[in-house]
Design goal:
The complex is a heterodimer of chains A (416) and B (140). Chain A has eleven helices and 18 strands. By secondary structure, chain A is of the alpha+beta class. In chain A, helix 10 packs antiparallel against helix 11. Chain A is rod-shaped. Chain B has 140 residues and is an alpha+beta fold. In chain B, strand 4 and strand 5 form a beta hairpin. Classes of the chains: A alpha+beta (416), B alpha+beta (140).
């Protein structure tokens, strides 16, 4: 078979600062993988050139990649504003954007899609936790044969195996709290060798764990091996493998082709049937409305974003509440001060008036002054002038005089 | 419109709650604050009219017996301050009879210098050719 006819899958992904590239020749009996190439991110141009040269060498190709970002999760509904792919009826992997940039890619998968593809045949009515360990992140999903109920992404960088196992267990507990279902079976797909993690998970969770270990390249080659598998791709307008196969096998009989089409159709119908069989209870619906499928990064960001108006309003309200309290206190103090100052000024004026009225006509012995009334007593030298003066200030006041033994005269004056 | 439809229900709920809080709490509080601020500015102006002090005008400070006695002692021969019931202070000032004008001037600035209100009652009494005044101050 010439290179023109061979169907190859070119797989690449980025882990930390390196791009990893591989290609495999797809055959009826599986794929034949070639050597993995590695490019530093500073050699991105070389990496892209290598992909393009492979595409020229093998025109019948698919360039396959995987999203290893943490901000992806499985939702019940499609989000048309974000990159999403249906991996199962009413289960969509959603992430903010496609992060392959300028790198050529025709198929782009989520670890969730790969994970589901790997284990979908083993799913039953019993709740199962499927974990994919890619790029030191745990892509976890709770699934039964009819749907994926919940998903989480947990970063494990810097954590010990025991801490990872604890987080997995906490995720199971968290899921139990919202669904009252506990996964008593766990399947794990790891892209790196991590026997210690598996051992600790088995010990900590006391669960039977089915482990599948495969490289990301092999998983991607497998995902792009047929159209049925490849349909769980983020990029919707990807090249159909079926049409490529037709080119690859031009002599294939129409009868066989029709048989394959029927098989695909049957599987699609099975999916639709499952969709119709899915009966949502009221509780489930309500739970669905309020539960999201939080991935490690997005859950926090989305929660924060959605509650941002609330926080802003609370912050504003809190600020103005405090300002209001403060201005109320200040206002109350100023009110008291103004009232006190009015009283003081009035008393000072009364005192001034009384002493001015007495002048040289009298001498004060005792006085009680208030803004309402005055009561004064003293020695008077000029009775009439004093009486007139006081009456000018306090009209109709009660003025009395009393002769003393020492030939002096005492006066008293009370205002009305 | 499509964008609004795609917003999750929880986000919508948060938004509605935020809107309600904004309308029922934040805006009324804000309006109340700005109203009080306006009233406060007017009170400041009113107080400036009532302020007969000369020179630099300081904000009223918290009443303190020692500070008050020291201040009043600059003008009068004897100043006694006793703490009495109801969080008040009985003040007795003894001065020469000729100092009545000074006392009246002092009276006009007590509540501007200290956060105290004077009880509406002054008791003057002649003692040995001097004049004593008793009054009650109550911090506010």
């Amino acid at each position: 078979m010439s290179n023109q006819q061979k169907y190859i899958t070119i797989t690449h992904y980025k882990e930390r600062e390196f791009y990893f590239l591989n290609y495999a020749i797809q055959t009826k009996d599986g794929f034949i993988s070639k050597e993995i190439e590695q490019f530093h991110e500073s050699d991105k141009e070389k990496f892209i050139e290598r992909i393009k040269s492979l595409q020229i060498e093998f025109p019948n190709n698919q360039v396959v990649s995987i999203s290893l970002v943490a901000n992806q999760s499985i939702h019940q509904e499609q989000d048309r504003n974000r990159a999403s792919a249906e991996i199962f009826p009413h289960n969509f992997v959603i992430q903010d954007k496609i992060d392959v940039g300028t790198i050529p890619t025709t198929l782009y998968f989520s670890p969730f899609a790969v994970l589901y593809q790997q284990y979908k045949d083993g799913l039953s009515d019993e709740l199962k936790l499927l974990i994919g360990y890619f790029d030191r992140k745990l892509f976890m999903m709770f699934a039964t044969s009819d749907k994926i109920h919940q998903s989480w992404t947990i970063g494990t960088r810097g954590l010990t195996e025991k801490q990872i196992a604890e987080r997995v267990y906490k995720s199971m507990q968290a899921y139990y709290k919202i669904s009252y279902s506990f996964a008593d079976h766990l399947d794990m797909l790891v892209s790196d060798e991590s026997p210690k993690l598996l051992k600790v998970l088995r010990e900590e969770l006391s669960l039977h764990i089915d482990l599948t270990q495969n490289s990301i390249h092999n998983l991607l080659h497998d995902m792009a091996s047929s159209d049925e598998k490849a349909k769980n791709s983020y990029i919707k307008t990807f090249k159909k493998i079926e049409s490529i196969k037709e080119k690859e096998e031009p002599k294939k009989s129409d009868k066989q082709d029709a048989f394959e089409r029927k098989q695909v159709l049957d599987e699609k119908l099975d999916d639709i049937k499952l969709l119709h069989d899915e009966k949502k209870g009221l509780l489930e619906t309500v739970k669905g409305m309020f539960s999201s499928s939080p991935s490690e990064g997005t859950f926090m960001i989305r929660s924060l974003t959605s509650t941002l108006p609330l926080f802003t309003v609370f912050a504003m309200g809190g600020f103005f509440h405090l300002q209001n309290e403060e201005i109320s206190n200040k206002l109350s103090l100023k009110d008291s001060q103004i009232m006190a100052q009015h009283t003081n000024l009035e008393l000072a004026e009364i005192s001034d008036n009384v002493f001015l009225a007495m002048g040289k006509n009298a001498e004060l012995k005792k006085a009680t002054l208030s803004t309402k009334k005055i009561d004064i007593k003293g020695i008077v030298w000029g009775i009439e002038p004093l009486k007139n003066s006081l009456n000018e200030v306090y009209a109709n006041g009660k003025f009395d005089i009393k002769p003393l033994e020492n030939f002096m005269t005492e006066f008293t004056f009370k205002s009305k | 419109m499509n964008k609004i439809k795609t917003i999750s229900l929880m986000s919508k709920v948060w938004f509605v709650v935020a809107l309600l809080i904004l309308l029922l709490w934040v805006i009324p509080t804000m309006v109340s604050f700005y109203k009080k601020q306006k009233v406060y500015d007017k009170k400041i102006e009113e107080l400036q009219v009532l302020d007969k002090r000369e020179g630099v005008h300081f904000e009223a400070k918290v009443f303190h017996i020692g500070v008050f006695k020291k201040d009043a002692g600059r003008y009068f021969s004897t100043v006694e301050v006793d703490s009495i019931a109801n969080n008040s202070y009985a003040v007795k000032i003894v001065m020469e009879k000729s100092q009545v004008q000074v006392f009246n001037a002092f009276l006009k600035k007590i509540s501007l210098d200290y956060a105290v209100a004077l009880e509406d009652n002054l008791l003057f009494k002649e003692i040995n050719d001097s004049m004593s005044v008793k009054m009650v101050l109550k911090p506010y």
